[in-house]
């Protein structure tokens, strides 16, 4: 599996050379100083004398994530926030686990194209183009699917066993906007009269969705 992931990252690195999402780097390494108050496009660099192998290491994708939540899925990021050494390198990974019936709900990544590689199980996946066409497919263990940068996409485990994927991104921090949560659980809230008109429903329906998606206290 490690070899597969490595191949994946290399492929993505080559790919991102021609379809760069993040800006190109200007030095060998710029390990993120995540505690620095200095604001730049990315993170400011740690002092070179303080860089260690730990800055380039993460074992957080080794085990399945817990999927006992309302969506039945969990995304575990392996981005610059977890691996400071990724700062300025323009790549990252995630692991996504899905319970049977689990959904990674419709969302977008504003800064990256995503490729998923199925580790276990089967998924129904899709994205929607700006001309409003759904491009969808069922994928299984060992298969890959691509979600183009910025387009709304989802993955659903319609199987009877858990599923898992590794996702590769051409950004150190792809960012995620989950459509339902962005619209119905923003803080401060999006006004009801925006949502009733957008979705062509009444205030009651909007409030019901808002209450279901409200962050758990
Ligand atoms: C290196 O890290 C140590 C411990 O975090 C810190 O005290 C020190 O100031 C750092 N050195 C430089 C040059 O940034
Ligand atoms: C999920 O399972 C874990 C471990 O079994 C437990 O600690 C946690 O509270 C559960 N979370 C929910 C939302 O049920």
CATH homologous superfamily designation of the domain at 57-177: Jelly Rolls
General shape: globular
What is the annotated CATH architecture of the domain at 57-177? Sandwich
How many helices does DSSP assign? 4
What is the terminal-to-terminal distance? 38 Å
What structural class do you assign from the helix and strand content?
alpha+beta
- Give the overall average pLDDT: 92
Query: What top-tier CATH class of the domain at 57-177 fits best?
Result: Mainly Beta
Succession of helices and strands = HEEEEEEEEEEHHH
How are the strands ordered across the major sheet?
A: 1-2-9-4-7
- Ions and ligands: 2-acetamido-2-deoxy-beta-D-glucopyranose
**Looking at CATH, which topology of the domain at 57-177 would you report?**
Jelly Rolls
* Unreliable runs: none
Give a count of the beta strands, DSSP E runs of length 2 or more.
10
Summarize the structure.
The chain has 217 residues and is of the alpha+beta class.
Describe the structure.
This protein has four helices and ten strands; from the N terminus they run H-E-E-E-E-E-E-E-E-E-E-H-H-H. By secondary structure, it is α+β, with helices and mostly antiparallel strands. Among the domains are: 121 residues, Jelly Rolls; 29 residues, no CATH class. The longest helix is centred in the N-terminal third of the chain and has 17 residues. It is globular, with a radius of gyration of 19 Å. The protein binds 2-acetamido-2-deoxy-beta-D-glucopyranose (2 copies). The site of one 2-acetamido-2-deoxy-beta-D-glucopyranose (NAG) has 3 residues, from loops. It is found in: Secreted, Extracellular space, Apoplast. Keywords: Apoplast, Disulfide bond, Glycoprotein, Manganese, Metal-binding, Secreted, Signal.
